[in-house]
Amino acid sequence: MIKYALILGLLSTFNTGHCQQYDIDKVKTKAVDIYEKAVVLLRNESLKEGVPLLLEAIKIDSNFVDAYLSLGGVFGQLKQYKRSILFYEIGKAKDSIYFKPYELPYSINLAGDGRFIDALNAVNRFLLNTKLNERSIKSAGYRKRTYLFALNFSATHSNTDYEFIPVNLGDSINTSSSEYYPSVTVTDSLLVFTRRKENKREDFFQSSTKEKKFSKAQIIQGDINLEPQKGAITVSQDGEWMLFAGQFAEQHTRNFDIYISFLTPQGWSEPQNMGDNINTEFWESAPSLSPDKRTLYFSSNRPGGFGGADLYCSHQLANGKWTAAENLGNTINSAGDDQAPFIHADNQTMYFTSDGLTGYGGADLFMIRKNNKGEWGSPENLGYPINTIENEGSLAVSADGLTAFYASDRSDSRGELDLYRFQLRPDIRPYRTLYVKGKVTDIQTGKSLPSSVELINNTDGMVLMKIQTDETGSYFITLPTGKDYTFSVNRKGYFSYNELYELSKSEADSVYQKNIALQPIKLNAIITFKNIEFANNAFNLPASATIELEKLVTVLQENPSLVIEIGGHTDYIGSKEDNIRLSKNRAKTIVDFLIAKGVEATRLKFNGYGDSKPVADNKTEDGRAKNRRTTVTITRI
User: Fold this and answer.
1) Which of 129, 145, 289, 615 has the most Cβ atoms closer than 10 angstroms to its Cβ?
2) Architecture of the domain defined by 432-520
3) 3-state secondary structure of 322
4) 3-state DSSP call for residue 603?
5) Which of 7-11, 68-72, 291-295, 594-598 is least confident?
6) What is the rounded CA–CA span in Å between residue 103 and residue 140?
7) CATH topology for the 173-207+222-428 domain
């Protein structure tokens, strides 16, 4: 008689060769008949339909060990790990010798339930058998490494207060079809995702959010959904671009390419192929766009990588073209498949999946961060229970850095894959990110000015993000908290506009609407430095002044005939003589900086005006603060 429990890939790897309590020939015939019907269903992948028959078989004969072990296997396949463990342990209690070949699948389900110490003990018992074939030894060795990794991760990452509670996004989003690959805008007001129907057609859907409630998902309008063969989708942080992977009819023999579509008054535009600097005849997918829309990250299995699929990036040039794709290197990419990159709105934190980096089994989710030089660090596993023994899919994280979205087929799924959200552990959160938006105009005419907008890290002077406004001068730039930044708006022929956002010590609690009027470079034009605040009674140049003064150096380099005067001003507190001397020394300090940067001394003058030219009421602290200023005046063009 056959060994009925040896199904679903849980094949016996050796003969026990001993006297045992369990005798298959003594199982009641009726139980065997029902069990054989269950086997047919299970082999046809009708797992849920087979469960009642297996339960009926053990009800008829409570000593039917193969039925218990098959239930253990079925519930493992259904990811109901606790029930799987229960039935395995009942089977083991009835005959521990007969159970020995099942120590490996038993260990896998223990690990699925997060019981990694028990899983390690079980796989070690499995490996004690000296008659295992090479395949079994290799499989068990792989699982043992994952259990050891899990135990080591747990020992080195103390997160005892963290609770992983995925919440289904509900009937407004999820259906009996599969929903997956979520993406959100920086305002967290728009969720886009892919839905695959029974006929395998994939369409893109969107839902607006308000107070964490989702509107009924609607198919995205426009030409973006015309082709049926498409998949991974991402929306730019400002909600103006969508990028996705597709295999269009005109591609013929090509694999999936990356396409882009733009928001128009009529809906989303006809998708455009991103071109040969990004796409090849091989597979390209999983696009993710940096918040300033200047860097595209994606996955490709083109030759020349470090594994099956690797992560790549491409940068947009000033003329709108994209550079040749660059491999992110073997510090990030593995010998396996590295996929589904998601760059957060902070432009410093990325999440992706890998089945080649050490983890819990299958594909795990990892995180990488940029260092102070703008270089990506080493991947960090997100840990259990975010990662499991199964294959994890793509992850998207909201702008506040607290909420993550992902697809899963958990027990409360509406059918197949559903979208869920959960709270990220503090140690794997990106920087909370807000945004600044507004319009750039000429201060005199009010005319819109297409301009360059930069976000500069005050600590190291590095440009964290750089965008170009649209033709109407409108801009949108993300603003990560946790650091101090200079926000700089630049256009040739105008003085740069610079404003300090100090977010290192306290988090802002709102977004910023900032319309900016630029001062054209013309005779007698005067601008006031915004970020140069000298200490009381001191004239040493403050660290915050460097970035703004560097911008002035650029203006002087672009306009070699320009002559300027740096003017120092104080409030009325103190003697007039002291105020004149202090303001003059402060102006001279700035001139000395400019000379050190290569500006000819003949183009620079300085003067100290003390409190003689107030611009506000000296009777209030706010007024006095405005009077304590440093100015630039154009004295010759």
Assistant:
1) 289
2) Sandwich (2.60)
3) strand
4) helix
5) 7-11
6) 10
7) Neuraminidase (2.120.10)
